[in-house]
Structures are given as structure tokens and as C-alpha cells.
Amino acid sequence: MTDPYTGMIVDAHHADQRGTGSYPATLARALNSHFTADALAIISQWPGYTPTPLLALSGMAADAGVGSVLYKHEASRFGLGSFKALGGGYAVFRLLAQRIEEETGHVPQVADLLAGCYRDITRKVTVTCATDGNHGRSVAWGASLFGCNSVIFVHGTVTRQRAEEIARLGARIVRDPGNYDDAVRAANAAGEANGWLVVSDTSYEGYMTVPLDVMRGYGVLLHETLAQLGNRQPTHVFLQGGVGGFAAAIISGLWEHYGESCPRIIIVEPENAACLLLSARNGRPSVVSGLHDTIMAGLACGEPSLVAWPYVEGAVSNYLAIPDEAVRVAIRQLAQGRGQPPVIAGESGAAGLAGFLVAATDAPVRQTLGLDGQSCVLLIGTEGATDVQMWESITGRRLEQPT
Fold first, then answer.
1. Torsion (CA) 193, 196, 202, 205 in degrees, nearest 10
2. Where does the Tryptophan synthase beta chain-like PALP domain lie (predicted)?
3. What's the pLDDT score for residue 306?
């Protein structure tokens, strides 16, 4: 296979774990199908809810020499362009529902919150978080949907367009000159000082409950995917890294569903922000320092989420660190269609696909992963073109609709 992805693996780590055996009870206590069902019961009542499509990328499968490539395309999720709406929005709902119950003694119904029946309570609440773009957008959207205020911290390399998209949802934007992890600390400090509710998608000592709600919201994505797969069982799943919350949510659902037959799970990260790879290599959560400069803005994270790490460590067999150029090539190939309708993907959204295609061209890695003509590869296209200018600069095309 002649391909521009040749030689693009910057770093790789083989961890031996394969999620063998049944889903551990210690992990199932926090993430399981019952929590997913609870999240789905709430999220399915929100305006605009519909499962996102699972696409078969037959041309890419043929080029990569595998049996099939299935791509869960999140660009249309609630009009926000990414899967993050499931997590941030759900966590905002849970926090507001808790506040309302504390003040009224009643558990609020979704329809009543949407209708503004508790506006006298919610308008006094401010939620805050740090973001690379999509999580902050989902929190701001949830705040707008349910009638509270939002203050979103963005770090130094978040593009102006991404910050403006968040502001359009009514959020106040605060820019921190550091990296994502610096913005997390700034949001936490501001939340504590002002009595705001922190809605973080990463966890740390003393802060676990809200990130778990975020991850439980993400579980709805996997619930949809399993239904769409039917009798097709993936052999390989390539997942974007970041802090690990998204990966952990998908891992938990796969492991619980498939048990001993759980697919091989591979984590893909930017070369400058491969904190999960480093953590696996060190055998403990580890920090990657620096600004984590990468076009994969949603993955520009230097510290693993503590609540997510046990899921990642327990199930992931391989970790790949790739350069930005691999993602640029993947975005262009998706946009070209390669014999089927074009797919519009953002930089973080295409990272899993890029990692797979890079691995498929590297003979030793391909052999280690067991990729062959019978493989069924599952990918999650986590975002559409959430930064239209970036997408247009990468593809050289004009984008009319970012889905």
C-alpha cells in the first residue's frame, strides 16, 4: 500500500493489556449500561436529539487492506458539531437538577427545565469550565438550554473562531495564556472564588463526580453505536486520547458488552500531548509539560483524568503518537470522498482515522495490531469542522455546511 502516511508514527507503546476477561466490578461501579440508560432517558428528551450515523468507509478499508472501516460521524450532534454535547450538556443538567431539588424538594422534569419553570433558581447559577473548544461549547449550550449562566476559560492556542462560537451561546470567555491544564486550574480557582459550579471533563483529587457524569453522557454515543453495529463485531477500535474521559466511556461500554471478546483498543494522541502513552509507559498517570501545540485542539491535554485512567490502563493494548500532518492528510481524504460521499471532519475528529491509517502503513505495527483483510475497524469521528477556517485551509475547499 503506497500512502502518504508512511513513517508517520512518532512514538508507540505496546501495553499488553487487552481487556481480557469480564468487565471488572471495580470499574462497573462507576460506568455501566444502567448509567448509560439513565443518561439516554434524559438526553433523548432534548430538542434535536437523534442518533448520529455510522458510516461504512469502504474505499478506505480497501486502501488499508482491512475488511471494513466503520466511522461514527458526530458532526451533526445537536447542531454543535461534536459528541461533547452529550457530556457537557448532561453534566450541566445534572447539576441544575440537584440544585433545584435541594431548593424545592422536588426532582425536576426535563420538560419543565426546558420550559424555564425553574428560571428563578437557574438564573442565579453560573457554570464554568476550561476547554480546547468543544467541551466549553457544550457547557455553554447546556447553560443556554437550561437557563443558567456560563463562564468558559480557553487557553492560549484555542483559535479565535472556536472562542467566538462559544461566546455566541451566551458564555463569557476568559482567555488564559497557558496550556489546557493551566486553564483547568484557572477555571477551578475562579469557580471556588465566585461560587460557580465547575463542569470539568477531567478529574483530579477531590473532584470525580461531575467528570463521571460527563463520561456517562458520552456513553450514549456507544449505546447508539452498538445498536447500529447489529451483528457486526469490531476487531479493532482506534480512540482519540485527550485526558482519557471519552476513551474510558467507550471502553467501559465495549468491555461490558463484549466481555472476553472485547476488541483490541488503540489510543491515538498528538505527538506533543501524548499523556496517556507516557502514563502507560511509566505505569502511572504522568504529565506532559509544555504548551502541547497541535492542530488537534481537543486532544491538546497534558494530564490524564484520574477517574478515566483505570479504564484506559485496564483495556488499551497500544498507544500511538502521530504528527499533525497525518491528520491533515486524513481530513483531505475524507473530504475527497474516495468513491463515496465526502465526510467533513475536524482535526480532533479525524485523529482516530489518521492513527489507523498510519498504523496500516507501518508493517511492524500492523503486524503487532493484527490488522489484516478480515479486520473490522471502528472509529469515532468525534467532530465536524468546528473551525471552518482551519478546515478550509487544510483542504483548499470552501465549506458550505460543516457536517
1. 50
2. 47-361
3. 96
Q: Pick from 157, 122, 164: which is nearest to 143 by CA?
A: 122
Cα–Cα nearest to 292, from 314, 319, 270? 270
Q: Which three cell numbers stand for residue 178?
A: 497557558
Q: Are residues 70 and 90 in the same domain?
A: no
**Which H/E stretch holds residue 76?**
none
Residue-wise pLDDT for 323-372, tens only, equals 999 999 999 999 998 778 999 999 999 999 999 999 999 999 999 999 99
Domain stops at, among 145, 172, 207: 207
Instruction: State pTM to two decimals.
Output: 0.95
What total number of domains does the chain contain? 2
Annotated catalytic residue within 63, 72, 132, 213 = 132
Active site residue 201: no
Active-site hit among 3, 16, 63, 84: 84
Q: Do 284 and 384 belong together in one domain?
A: yes
pLDDT tens digits along 180-198:
889 999 999 999 999 999 9
The answer to whether 133 touches 388, Cβ cutoff 8 Å, is no
Long-range contacts of 20-29 (CB under 8 A, 24+ apart): 20/260, 20/262, 21/259, 21/260, 22/259, 22/260, 23/252, 23/255, 23/256, 23/259, 24/314, 26/310, 27/252, 27/255, 27/310, 27/311, 27/314, 28/252, 28/256
What pLDDT does 403 receive? 56
Q: Which domain holds residue 302?
A: 11-82+210-395
Contact 188, 198 (CB under 8 A): yes
The alpha carbon of 212 is separated from its chain's Cα centroid by a whole number of angstroms, namely 14
